[in-house]
TrEMBL record:
Protein name: Heavy-metal-associated domain-containing protein
Gene3D superfamilies: 3.30.70.100
Alphabetical list of CDD domains matching this protein: HMA
Organism of origin: Caenimonas aquaedulcis
One MF term in the entry's GO annotations: metal ion binding
Record domain HMA: where: 1-64
Keywords: Metal-binding
Length: 66
């Protein structure tokens, strides 16, 4: 299932890697696309939306459903 999140606080490649790794720790097969300019993170995974948002938030970012 394709999920889109608004993520605040991402500004660089490190942020992109941190978010990607957090999602991949939850689901190694997930496809993650981060757009730093818009703050959008698209995730293709079978994991529940709440679990993905929580994984991203645990990295220190504010997450809202897009």
């Amino acid at each position: 299932m394709n999920q889109t999140f608004d993520v605040q606080g991402m500004s660089c490649g490190h942020c992109e890697r941190a978010v990607t790794q957090a999602v991949k720790a939850l689901d190694a097969a997930a496809r993650v696309r981060v757009d730093l300019a818009t703050g959008k993170v698209q995730v293709e995974t079978d994991q529940p939306r709440e679990a993905v948002a929580r994984a991203i938030a645990q990295e220190g970012y504010q997450v809202a459903a897009a």
